[in-house]
Sequence to fold (429 residues):
Amino acid sequence: MSKIKIMLQVSYIRENREHVLDRLAVKNFKQPELVDEVIKLDEQRRQTQNMLDGVSAEANAAAKQIGELMRTGKRTEADAIKANSNTWKEDIKKLGDQLASIEQELQQKLVLLPNLPHTSVPKGITPEENEVVLENGIRPELPATALPHWELASKYNLIDFELGVKITGAGFPVYKGKGAKLQRALIAFFLDEAEKAGYSEVMLPLLVNEASGFGTGQLPDKEGQMYYVGLDNLYLIPTAEVPITNLYRDVILKADELPVKNCGYTPCFRREAGSYGAHVRGLNRLHQFDKVEIVQVVNPETSYEVLEQMSTHVQSLLQKLQLPYRVLRLCGGDMSFGSALTYDMETWSAAQKRWLEVSSVSNFETFQSTRLKLRFRNAEGKTQLAHTLNGSALALPRIVATLLENNQTERGIKIPEVLVPYTKFEWIE
RNA sequence: GGAGAGGUGUCUGAGUGGUCGAAAGAGCACGCCUGGAAAGUGUGUAUACGCCAAAAGUGUAUCGAGGGUUCGAAUCCCUCCCUCUCCGCCA
Fold:
């Protein structure tokens, strides 16, 4: 297993110490002292390498000389130089070990540093401090007899949660009849829309290796959130982001290959350890769910523009489904470890009377590309880290939840027009 | 699961101890040739980390990973990982 090194960002930290500290504070980062520790270790690293390089250069030159002398038969002179070799060897070994352990320590600290938030990220710690960017659509007023989606699911025989418990456990629903068809319709609809927006579809492995987990930042940070297949040392993907983005691990793209735009449908598996209670009923929080993901690899100059485009795309889906939604700009404390700026899209669940997160669109800037070693050749012909972005477009369960709840009528549940060509039925009765 | 083969640069592929960061070809880039293209032809074409204000330059490391032998390792030895082929099983 090759070690994933993320040294690429060290020089940035060294040269922008104040800015790094300033940004980390917005993310409410608890160990700012790590920054100075990293800078100090990097200093030691460079010193040590300098010494090591010097000794190695001497030893290399001597070895070359010995070769020359041996060829011309001057054995005595060769032996004289050989006498020095032990000292070099010891020094090289010693300095090499030292360098390795410094690098390892540096590496361990570096992975503890979250990505720096963008300047537009609001300060804040709790979800309540997220900034509402916009709200769109009309929240339906339902009669008092309106049912939450889990009751609708059972009334119309769409989803069987108990059967899922029997065959697997809680959080693994069984979709039946029109419930199953609705899943398939949504997946096809989302993929078609993504394709129209220029994303090319990929179908992917649902299990990934350790290197992939590190590449997108799930490891080591969120190890406990992934299902792990110990026998083969593989992880079930928590999102298609992982296999899609890792397609570009260890890749140097040509400038004209950017932007890379991919979409993919996969089931997603999340252990969701520790989240139980009133808010996880029905489809609100699952261990397995379906999602269409969009991913872009772009030139850093355009990444924020692209983030807006992706946000617009996700919103267009919600508009077409006629679901009331709002867009949040996450505050520093609520953002994920690797993100520089995240928009969350939430739909209004009219029976539960609360907002449900259905998408999260993020710009990771170079956080992932550093780990992935994902670069492109810029106009000057030099390699440069690309920016990566991804977003859900969309995750199904909460869409289904709001769709069932908001569209319930006395006759049954009305399917949004855009979906009818996919479901081939207009009503769930 | 059993047996065998193998992992070299963007790719194919040579290389069994020094002159090897690595032949040759393909691809790609730029130039010449051409009315234009093809063909032909010339040149260039890995990455990271140091040193240097920077460019130029230069040092070090990297031939799956790690360790060992040696003055010197792509090449020899050990361990691990991965891929392929055949057999078995199988959607």
Chain A has a mean pLDDT of 91.
